[in-house]
Amino acid sequence: MAFVIELLTAALLVVGAFFLLVGSIGLAKLPDMMRRLHGPTKATTLGIGAILVASMINAWAERGFLSLHELLITIFLFLAAPITAYMIAKAHILHDRETEEALPPTGVGTPWMTLAPPEGGREAEGGAEGGAGSPGSQGA
Amino acid sequence: MIETAALVCIGAIAIAIGLNVYRLALGPDILDRVLALDTMVINAIALIVMIGIWYATDVYFEAALLVAMVGFLSTVAFCKFVLRGNVIE
Q1: Mutation test of the interface with chain B: which of A13, A65, A67, choosing the one with the most B Cβ atoms within 10 A?
Q2: CB contact under 8 A, B19 and A36
Q3: pTM confidence score
Q4: 8-state DSSP, A32
Q5: 3-state class of A128 per DSSP?
């Protein structure tokens, strides 16, 4: 039984290390920003997840009680990873003129939401937020 | 066996951090560098958890959780700064 637990821990460690390495190789080798964005997601979910499960099993085998608080890190990263990816992708689209111009047409006659919010939405927002969004008030 | 697996894992994480440093130094755009820093934080969390396994102690768990939170907040704040030129408006 002890051998099986040890084997399981070692296998999970190696699997986690493999996915962490794959994520970083993807970050280093993929050709453009949007493709680079999806390399490290493997490291965030599978890599860290496998290493934390290995840590839980190891602590259970050595100290006799199962500690579930390692799962907190996994849950936090699962919640945080989509927000991070969304923020980076949006900043990239708005930051880079070439990416903006390379976007395909939406096909419904209106422009992309990220680039040009609808008029109604902007007016409804204008009363509540005041001048916070306008370019003139930022330098003040 | 766990010792060998842990050594392999630490070596792989070290190589991964090296690749992140490569992208951090080379990245043509500022957002490539933000993404490289975010991935480096992920690898740092894995390294801290590995230290916890290696020394068979529980105290490194809190450090890993704090690094995860600080990394997430700093990435979002950096993107917000690139987007708006300001973090808290």
Answers
A1: A13
A2: no
A3: 0.80
A4: S
A5: helix
